[in-house]
Amino acid sequence: MRGRLFKNKSLAEYTSWRVGGPAETLYIPSDINDLVTFLQQLPEDEPLLWLGLGSNVLIRDGGVEGVVIVTQGGLNSIAQIEAETIRAEAGVACAQLARYTARLGLTGIEFMAGIPGTVGGALAMNAGCWGGETWQTVMQVETINRSGQRTLRQPTDYKVAYRHVMGPQDEWFVAGYFKLVPGEKTRSLADIHNLLKKRTASQPTGLPNCGSVFRNPTLDYAARLIEQCGLKGMKIGDAIISEKHANFIINQGKATAEDIEKLISRIIEHVFESHGVRLMPEVCIIGK
After folding, report:
1. Which among 16, 55, 212, 242 is annotated as catalytic?
2. Which of 10, 71, 148, 198 can pair with 39 through a Cys bridge, CB separation 3.0 to 4.6 Å?
């Protein structure tokens, strides 16, 4: 194995909320072949968790049993394999992929510049923003299973919905192939610039958060419901609902995962009592 192996490693530095207990074992593979080698020597019953930028997860303070594999920094290859087809590995940041394709004069995934995660996470949850969704341009994907076996799969192998992707069990995405269309480089880069400017104006970028905490209900917005309940600025410990965007929870410096999880529960209760709508978390809550 050529990757980096850690024992009892705090996961706070691997999540965008900057909270979370330790992983019993943490591994950062050097590339996909190294990942294959690592998986082949794992016991079949070893719990396994995958992290990219850690932007859509809340790791509880008790940490995570088993092995955590971090794709960022390892599975970071990105290449133009045909005139209109881009292959990006799971650890590539979505914003990096958007800029890469725009500079090639390809259009279709400019919106991914606004997703604070990696390609692997975007594929796993059909991440999206500003009217675009990841799987709209997916041509095929590469997956890996616990035995280190790699498989090339088609979109028809998956059931894709809003922030939800269902496919073969016990397989994880290691790369995606994106089919794009020719466009104007200058215009695509301008679209990305304007999108990021709009995001900075409307969201608490630069502060520890996970992105959107809740899925939007049908024909409504989670942020609107939360704001109408007067919850902006509500705090538990050092976790606070953003004054800038009500669907964001910020770690003001010393928040624990317990603080954040309690605040999530409080939001769900208030919105249900006031509007009769039960918000569904978009963030995955993991650990002890």
Report:
1. 212
2. 148
Query: Catalytic pick from 163, 199, 224, 266?
Result: 163
4-70 has CATH 3.30.43.10 classification: yes
Reply yes or no on whether 163 is catalytic.
yes
Question: What are 11-62's pLDDT values in tens digits?
Answer: 999 999 999 999 999 999 999 999 999 999 999 889 999 999 998 899 999 9
Phi, psi of 41 (to 5 degrees): -100, 5
Between the alpha carbon of residue 123 and those of residues 46, 115, 131, the distances in Å are 24, 12, 16
Q: What pTM was computed for the model?
A: 0.88
Q: Which fold has domain 222-286?
A: 3.90.78
Question: Looking at this protein, which amino acid is placed at residue 123?
Answer: L
Q: Domains of the chain: which residue ranges?
A: 4-70, 78-202, 222-286
pLDDT one-digit tens code per residue, 97-133: 999 999 999 999 999 998 889 999 999 999 888 788 9
How much is the average pLDDT of 185-204? 91
Q: Is 282 a catalytic residue?
A: yes
8 Å CB contact between 125 and 162: no
- At 258 the pLDDT is 97
CA-nearest of 123, 277, 117 to 212 is 117
The pair of three-digit structure tokens given for residue 272, joined into one six-digit string? 């249900």
Angle at 70 between CA 10 and CA 54, to 5 degrees: 70
